[in-house]
Amino acid sequence: xxxxxxxxxxxxxxxxxxxxxxxxxxxxxxxxxxxxxxxxxxxxxxxxxxxxxxxxxxxxxxxxxxxxxxxxxxxxxxxxxxxxxxxxxxxxxxxxxxxxxxxxxxxxxxxxxxxxxxxxxxxxxxxxxxxxxxxxxxxxxxxxxxxxxxxxxxxxxxxxxxxxxxxxxxxxxxxxxxxxxxxxxxxxxxxxxxxxxxxxxxxxxxxxxxxxxxxxxxxxxxxxx
Length: 225
Hints:
The protein is mostly helical. It folds into 2 domains: 2-61, no CATH class; 75-210, no CATH class. The protein has helices at 2-12, 15-45, 50-61, 75-89, 111-119, 134-139, 141-158, 163-166, 193-210, and strands spanning 168-174, 185-191. Strands 1-2 form a two-stranded antiparallel sheet. The longest helix is centred in the first third of the chain and has 31 residues, at 15-45. This is Reverse transcriptase domain-containing protein.
């Protein structure tokens, strides 16, 4: 808007208006530079926030991500779908329920643990086949904690995982700008976020049981390493 006003004043030969609009334009440029510098500073202020740091790097380098172009031919995605579907088609073994011994103590989750897991969900994560987004589970943690705790404990007690928790949606993401073969796709598996919460609860229990037997030089899949 200021640029148009400046050009109009220049073409009209109005020196006074041109002087005023140039002053306003210079002030607007200084304010924009100051706001941009503050934005970059906020991105690098918290070194623990990796996402904001990358946003700052992209802003400094003026990086613009270009999405790969996909061919309209659906034969390659269909072939990728057939490839992963064959594993489920070959799985003809029926699931068997295993009964734990009477003396074994079955793992039991508490409502507080489930609520803590729900509060810690990343709302930006993509939903799985159940289409339940993470921000819904996070916002409704108080209402869903009791229900999910019962489901998790019943699953642990019966040693059976619901089929809906084991479903996976595989998204073929192009790795190149021009896709010509199946290797040009990166398969990304989207699982149920509720199942991920269940896995985290079990993982914490397993980690506490195995912490003393793990090699001290093992750093993979261990926190604070």
